[in-house]
Amino acid sequence: MLSFATSELTRAGVDTSELDAELLLAHALGVQRAWLLAHPEHPLSPQQETTFRALLARRAAREPLAYITGRRWFYDIELYISPQTLIPRPETEELVERALGWLQKRPRAIAADIGAGSGAIALVLAKHAPPDACIYATDISAGALEVARQNARRLGLSHRVIFLQGDLLTPLPQPVDLLLANLPYVAQRDAATLAPEVAQYEPAQALFGGPAGLDLIERLIAQAPSRLRPHGVILLEIGHDQGRAVMALARRQFPRARIRIHKDLSGRDRILEITSAS
Ligand SMILES: C[S@@+](CC[C@H](N)C(=O)[O-])C[C@H]1O[C@@H](n2cnc3c(N)ncnc32)[C@H](O)[C@@H]1O
User: pTM for the whole thing?
Assistant: First the structure.
């Protein structure tokens, strides 16, 4: 079954066909992947084979694995994922690391994750930030916020996060010390270059940021001066080719701030950091 599934997925253009075949079969059988590899002789029952073939057909149609299994690990939490939410990416863990490092030094800080999606960023903060830190999670999408709330409940973190629906910073009831966001930043003109998993299945509202991808980032930076407490920090995930543009946007709104672009592990622009001077 595994070699059949691997060749089906390869034929469909899936890069990680062998891994995905194993993960789908493990999901169909309700076992860990390690169990599968340790029991290659295990025969599938007709019911298990039917279930597996149905999952395989979905993946062969390039539906992302995380939407099929409904789960995705991010940092050290397992999130429930639905097609209403972006699938969290490993690059975003670098944003979380920086936010956690900053919060350790400001244990009573107020933080806000804008565009929370599945809750990936806010919930890792909720798990690891000092207990007196206050954490808001906002999203414009009611469906995404519902998934984030469910994730908070499943992880026992509901009491640590305040969920708010609305456009960018407007739902925040007070200025905050730390604004962080992985907003949609794909340029509309790049839509044709996206993999089918992204273009056909992930919500457009979670991906696209206007013609150059910068519309939401620009609007958030414009709203930020009045929503940031003195000496506050903004951490935004950006596209690998957006460093110069976001630097200019940040400089215009925060002329006296310290502004930096951090690169990701592959050496590409990934995070904009603004430390407000007052
Ligand atoms: C790239 S996804 C990030 C999701 C999650 N933070 C993560 O890193 O996996 C962007 C999120 O921003 C939300 N969003 C889009 N436009 C928004 C707006 N104007 N105000 C607030 N959230 C918005 C989308 O619904 C989506 O959940």
Answer: 0.96
CA separation for the pair 205, 186 (Å, rounded):
10
12 lines ligand 1 (CB under 6 A): no
Ligand 1 pocket residue status of 116, Cβ below 6 Å: yes
Three-class SS state of 139: strand
| CA-derived radius of gyration, the chain | 20
Contact 239, 202 (CB under 8 A): no
Q: What is the CATH number of domain 71-275?
A: 3.40.50.150
Contact 237, 92 (CB under 8 A): yes
The residues spanned by each domain of the chain are 2-61, 71-275
Kindly give the distance from the C-alpha atom of residue 141 to the centroid of ligand 1, in angstroms, as a whole number.
Answer: 8
Determine the residue of 73, 169, 183 to mutate for testing ligand 1's pocket, defined as the one with the most ligand atoms within 8 A of the Cβ atom: 183
Which residue is listed with tokens 């992880």?
155
Which residue carries 């590409």 as its tokens?
Answer: 268
Four-residue CA torsion sign, 229, 147, 168, 87: positive
**Atom 17, ligand 1: which residue's CA is nearest?**
140
pLDDT digits (tens, 9 = 90+) for 50-99: 999 999 999 999 999 999 999 999 999 999 999 999 999 999 999 999 99
CA–CA separation, 86 vs 151, rounded Å?
Answer: 14
For residue range 218-231, list pLDDT tens digits in order. 999 999 999 999 99
Q: Is 184 in the pocket of ligand 1 (CB under 6 A)?
A: yes
Phi, psi of 33 (to 5 degrees): -60, -35
pLDDT one-digit tens code per residue, 18-61:
999 999 999 999 999 999 999 989 999 999 999 999 999 999 99
| 136, amino acid identity | Y
